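Example complex used in Figure S2.
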Amino acid sequence: MHYLWAFLVGGTLCVAGQLLIDLTNLTPARVLVLYVTSGVLLSAVGLYGPLAELAGAGATVPLTGFGHLLAQGVKRAVDEQGLLGALTGGGAACAAGVAASLLTGVAASLLTKSHDQN
Amino acid sequence: MKPDKEQYARLLKQACPRSPLLRDCLWAFFVGGGICLLGEGIRTAWLAAGHTLSDAGALTSATLIVISGVLTGLGWYQKLASKAGAGTLVPITGFANAVVSPAIEFRCEGLVTGVGARMFSIAGPVLVYGLLASAVWGVIWWLIRPWLL
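Predicted assembly (267 residues):
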């Protein structure tokens, strides 16, 4: 059941992105920024948590889930450290994903050659 | 001929054939959903290996990022992306692709100003506005917290 919800919710979030690209001419970079900030907002108002519980990776793998991760991290950090947590929480929460991306990027740039983009 | 705004819009419409919306959306749905399904499988495996819920989430992201990096290095992710559009952009694998792809592309400009700087051309804005939004939420939560607890 979890798998079905993951597929449906993840697919739906991607279709929403596709509609934004096709109908509004938003560039991919803008769509990603929009998704992350929407994720923070939806998490802050308490809507994204229940969705993540229902759909698992279907909600956490799309970039809105990255925003949810940031918002959760900040909330927890503020609970523990007070106002300082507003600065530390987000970075700590996304550290694994960012570091994994950067290390993969450096490794790939050293090991592979540029492909024709077409 | 110097076209006015209206003529220009018409010419632009003729020049760029609209990609059929339904086909784009079906591709995005099935590929995007499929990537999330793969993520759910990986998450279940990390949970079964005895990791906590939040650790399993971070490990799932890291696993997908490495998979996406390898596929980008092989040039396969871009091929899929040309069909799947937002289906490959919106998942975390799209974020990884946006980091890895320019890193490979701009290797010829050097490790610092090429690889190091260009990696952030798309990931940078995502992190800037993600962290900005989360910091704002942190201050709001700090302000309303005393009333809620």
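The longest helix of chain B spans residues 120-148. Chain B has a mean pLDDT of 89.
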